[in-house]
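Hey team,

Filing this mostly as a record. A colleague (T.K.) asked me to run one chain through the structure pipeline before their review meeting, and I want the input and output archived in the tracker in case anyone asks later how it was produced. No errors, nothing strange. Just documentation.

Input sequence:
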Amino acid sequence: MTEQSVDTQHRTDGINLTGVAAGKVKSLLEQEGRDDLQLRIAVQPGGCSGLRYQLFFDERNLDGDAVTDFDGVAVVVDRMSVPYLNGATIDFVDTIEKQGFTIDNPNATGSCACGDSFH
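Output structure:
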């Protein structure tokens, strides 16, 4: 398990979480009422473009996980997903058109209209 503390600079050797997204994660964790959960981000086969993102709260730590702290929010990426997510930025948008987490991934060569699937 690797632990790193991150400042506001954009990382190319790991995942990035914006301040807005970190604030939303903290708010959701407070609603859950549990302090043992962390945000896990994974890349799984599936979706219309071949790969899809999964974001969920998890209390597990797996062998080889990369753990990064963003202002008190632990973000965990499993070792198989790390190469797909290096340099990716997770943000949270709340507009009239859309609400939810978004992922800007420089490793994705294409995506589908749903926004959840890429290749």
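Quick notes for T.K.: Residues 19-32 form the longest helix (14 residues). Residues 1-7 have pLDDT under 50 and may be disordered.
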